[in-house]
Specification:
Protein name: Sporulation-delaying protein SdpB family protein
InterPro entries: HTTM-like, Sporulation_SdpB, Sporulation_signal_mat
Order of helices and strands: HHEEHHHHHHHHHHHH
Number of domains: 1
Largest sheet: 2 strands, antiparallel
Keywords: Membrane, Transmembrane, Transmembrane helix
Number of strands: 2
Number of helices: 14
Shape: globular
Domain HTTM-like: 6-283
Distance between the termini: 75 Å
Membrane topology: Multi-pass membrane protein
Structural class: mainly alpha
Length: 316
């Protein structure tokens, strides 16, 4: 019977995405108290809405007096998940916290929804990860590998592929949904967003951005530029890997600018994790130790004269 090989999913690349997703949710919970996260919304009711599936969330298991206690328990789970320790043990608790935040808080945004979906898919990868830390290089399957191990590898790879398809569809929908609106078609949409009272640019950034948005060419470039980038990211799976690596810094910078201008930091961190899954090759295993060694060698090479002078001062 003909066999087909595929990259193992348990690599440091997907671990970095796990860490980013955990840090995004951790920032939401750690820097917002219960009174901010859980409040009444007009025509909807007071959150958390413990109805149906949502009643299984962590904040529906305690009374309102213990929301802050549960919030810090969730923060502890996220810290452990972000550290990369024992992925197979922390994957399900991490996904449960992401679900509880998305369904429980009254100010959830697209970043919380993306985090919940990606965390659930990544949990399918992590439950088969036997490494102690998800930063460790991937380990080849033992020969002959057990049937259970092969199925775990297939499930993990399939989950990452689903996450990549999810991100591609997300960027496609984001681009196409803007096109029917006249402000995006004529290149003026960012003028209104930047000057929006609720989501507009902070006052310290307004003078610099006003120079751009008050110019017809400038506002058209920053309005149509995201559309071009989003459709390129939607088609990234059809592109060579070298082109995907070129799109990665562009996508990171794009979401960083959204975070700085609109303050959507948890959304940006979730999208960075999604970009890593979308644009990195399957089984990508960056050598973090080599990067650290290269950084140390570079820092030592910059100070040869200082070291020589210090040795000369040592008495014989």
């Amino acid at each position: 019977m003909r066999q087909r090989a595929f990259p193992l999913p348990w690599a440091a690349g997907y671990g970095l995405a796990r860490t980013l997703l955990a840090l995004g949710t951790l920032g939401t919970l750690a820097f917002s108290d219960a009174a901010t996260l859980f409040r009444e919304v007009a025509t909807v009711g007071r959150y958390p809405l413990c109805q149906g599936v949502n009643s299984g969330g962590a904040f529906c298991l305690v009374s309102s007096q213990h929301y802050d206690t549960m919030r810090w328990i969730c923060c502890l789970v996220l810290v452990v998940a972000a550290s990369g320790w024992r992925p197979r043990l922390t994957a399900i608790p991490h996904a449960y916290v992401a679900f509880s935040v998305f369904t429980g808080i009254s100010i959830s945004d697209g970043g919380d929804q993306i985090t919940w979906i990606l965390t659930l898919l990544i949990a399918m990868v992590a439950i088969g990860d036997k490494r102690r830390w998800h930063w460790q290089p991937s380990q080849p399957l033992e020969e002959p590998a057990s049937r259970q191990r092969n199925l775990s590898a297939l499930l993990g790879t399939s989950a990452i592929i689903m996450a990549r398809v999810q991100m591609a569809l997300l960027y496609f929908q984001s681009c196409v949904a803007k096109l029917p609106h006249a402000e995006w078609a004529d290149g003026t949409a960012l003028y209104y967003w930047i000057n929006n009272y609720a989501f507009g640019a902070p006052y310290w950034l307004r003078p610099a951005l006003d120079i751009i948005v008050d110019n017809p060419v400038g506002v058209a470039v920053i309005t149509w530029g995201p559309l071009v980038l989003e459709i390129a990211l939607a088609a990234a799976l059809l592109m060579p890997q070298r082109v995907r690596w070129m799109l990665l810094p562009a996508g990171i910078l794009f979401h960083l600018s959204i975070a700085v201008v609109m303050g959507l930091w948890s959304f940006a961190i979730a999208m960075w994790a999604g970009l890593l899954l979308l644009l990195s090759p399957l089984g990508h295993d960056p050598d973090f130790k080599a990067l650290l060694r290269r950084t140390r060698r570079h820092s030592v090479a910059e100070q040869p004269e200082v070291d020589a002078q210090s040795r000369e001062r040592v008495p014989a």
